[in-house]
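Please review the protein record below. Tell me whether the encoded fold seems credible here:
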Amino acid sequence: MKETNQNFCQSCGMPMGDTRELYGTNADGSKNEEYCSYCLENGAFTFQGTMEEMIEVCVPHMAGAHPDMDEETARKAMLQWFPTLKRWKQS
């Protein structure tokens, strides 16, 4: 998972691209630059579950986006990467 200057959702890890189109929204309707529109809506997380449950939701999407990656490889990568994301980071 290349982390150049790309902005990744701090919940699901999805790359959010160069535009604000995929940014989630805060309670006041403004764009949130840390979370994608699939994870944050009106200031609230749309997914209520554990990091492991989030990974299971994301595995098919990651494997589908990378033809050279099977689901087990995607799962292993996410199990390493997700704990570094803001939502899942242990304080």
